[in-house]
Amino acid sequence: MLKDMKKSKGSVVIVEDDMLLSLVETRIIEKLGYSVVGKAQSGEDAVEMAQQMRPDAIVMDISLKGELSGIDASIEIRKFSKVPIIFLSGSAESDLMKRAKKIGNADYLVKPIKADDIINPLKKAVKKKSQKSVKIFSEAS
């Protein structure tokens, strides 16, 4: 029975205010071998979840319900974490991409996404997070 259980490649928080897209994104991410450890629908919830769950990566929609956009939430998250963020947007608008890239340690994908779109950004994000965790842990010792 335990043989069938696969080890997760990493933990992911999904921030998406569209429930249908959230389900699709969850299915894609889990199919790629990652664990979805939390889902948020607003920027405020995303900040709280990032702080509590310390995921390996965050998949963040840019347009969210609430006061904070995905970019605003990421700026808040950067105050306490360098967790890699993969931004999702329905728009390929260059201003949004530029703002997202300024956050640092981030990728930008245009929705709708397929497994092929997100596989490399997820691999890269989880690898970066594990390298940073080791560095931060050594500095704290």
Notable features of this structure?
141 residues; alpha/beta; Rossmann fold; 5 strands; globular; disordered N terminus; disordered C terminus
Q: How does the major sheet shape up?
A: 5 strands, parallel
Within CATH, the superfamily carries the name Response regulator
The order of strands across the largest sheet is 2-1-3-4-5
Gap between N and C termini: 39 Å
Overall pLDDT: 86
How would you describe the shape?
globular
| CA-based gyration radius | 15 Å
Helix content: 40-55%
Poorly predicted tracts of residues: 1-5, 133-141
CATH architecture annotation: 3-Layer(aba) Sandwich
Order of helices and strands: EHEHEHEHEH
CATH topology (level 3) name: Rossmann fold
Provide structural commentary.
This protein is of the alpha/beta class and 141 residues long. It has one domain: Response regulator (Rossmann fold, 3-Layer(aba) Sandwich), CATH 3.40.50.2300. 48% of the residues lie in helices and 18% in strands. A five-stranded parallel beta sheet has the order 2-1-3-4-5, sandwiched between helices. The chain starts with 10 loop residues before the first strand and ends with a helix. The N terminus and C terminus are likely disordered.
What's the quick description here?
This protein has 141 residues and is of the alpha/beta class. The protein has helices at residues 19-31, 43-53, 70-77, 94-102, 115-140, and strands at 11-15, 35-40, 57-61, 85-89, 106-110.
